[in-house]
Design goal:
- The chain has one domain.
- The strands form 2 sheets. The chain has a 3-stranded antiparallel beta sheet. A two-stranded antiparallel ribbon has the order 1-2.
- Helix 1 crosses helix 3.
- It contains 4 helices and 5 strands.
- The chain is globular and about 40 Å long.
- With about 130 residues, the protein is of the alpha+beta class.
Length: about 130
Amino acid sequence: MQAHFGRSGLHMLSYDPRDDANALYLFDVSGRDAAKQQLYDDVPRLVTDFGDVVSMSQFYGSIYNMTPAHMDEIHAVMIENPDLEVITEQGGERRKASSIIASDTLKMKRQRSFFPMFLNDSDKKKV
């Protein structure tokens, strides 16, 4: 079995001895589960670094040299994450992780703002 000291997610290979959060990462089922959970934070953070939209080819280029995370898991997180969407060249939304290709675009979903405290009493009853 392999193991390394570092973190999970996109930055698996980063290690900082001053960081207590670093732990022994095992390449087993529980380690992969932990890595996938970390991807739910890491992938949107990276997309935001690009300005909320990034081509899949740019995304791949930015992560391939820094992570051994499995691409199937990264793609699954892109589809499952409620804050992300993968858009085809034709403008449609990808619904399957296995169908993501380099010409697609990864973007943050627009957030719908809802502030019930600004509704009057009659509008609150409708909600």
